[in-house]
Structures are given as C-alpha cells and as structure tokens.
Amino acid sequence: MTRPGPCVNWVALSHIEGPCRMPADILEGYIDLAPLAEELDRNPRTIMRWTEQPNGLPFVRLGRRIMFKRESVRNWISAREHKPNTRRTHRTGVSAAIV
Known about the structure:
This protein is an alpha+beta fold. Helices cover 29% and strands 11% of the residues.
C-alpha cells in the first residue's frame, strides 16, 4: 500500500475513513490513554503516574499520542495480583472475610 500524498500525520488521522485512514492492523491491540482510564475507572493522570513508577505500566508514545498494548496492561495488572496469606486468616481484614 502506498502512502497517499495529502496525509501528513497518519496517527492523528487514524479515526478517519477513506484514503487517509491508517491501516487498522498497525494499531490492533493498542488502546489510547483516555479509553484505558475509562475501562479501569481511573483518572488519566493516575494511569500516567503508573507509567512513571520504577516497574511501571509500559506504554508507547507516537508523537503526543500515548498508547498502551492491551496484552502488556493485562500482564502488568496480573503481576500485581495478591494472594491471601493463609497463615494469617485469624486477623480481621480481607483475608479473614474470604474464609
């Protein structure tokens, strides 16, 4: 596929239908900051704060656009999964409520 002349910024025009539209398969599996924040029910600033942590949420920057690979977000969340400590179920709190 050849790149049409009038399309200067394909990323910014990815939502446009027609000859200037970026091929969908290039960004398949990625999500923008605002939709991700909405899906996770968090403020976009919170998501960006997570990216700044030492073992933070991985992201891709395309110009000013920040995108997240869905699979990487799932893996990052899974890595933060906490398992209850079965030796401490006698205490009040989350683990006691599960028992």
